[in-house]
Amino acid sequence: MKYYTLKENHLFSKAYRSGLHTGGKYTSVYILPDYRAARLQRANPLKLRINRVGITVTKKLGVAVVRNRVKRILREAYYKATKTLDLKTGRIIVITARSAATEAKTDDIYRELVKAFDKLGLTDKTGGAENE
What we know:
Blueprint: E1 4-5, H1 9-18, E2 20-23, E3 27-33, H2 37-43, E4 52-56, H3 64-84, E5 91-97, H4 106-119
Parallel strand pairs: 1-4, 4-5
Antiparallel strand pairs: 2-3, 3-5
Helix pairs in contact: 3-4
């Protein structure tokens, strides 16, 4: 499935300001309902609802090489989570790296994302029921 990125700054700000969030050692995760989900579903060739994901890594974590490595690890952990979990769709998800993420492996961040998604109620435990 295609990875839909979040590009608008106002959506990042809105997720930080009014979204549900949880933090861990490596990441902070913010969840917000996506009000454009129905329009994006109609535009999608497969007519599926999608989650839009934004990944942020601040300059405090290091130089560009370090930041890009952390972004790649976060992106791969998110891919792995979407493949193994049945996530609810129609959400905006913002994943923010913390300073400990520079030393983390993909599996460490994957386990933390699974816990965060479960804590925020993003995992679908009904067994394939229609998502909101």
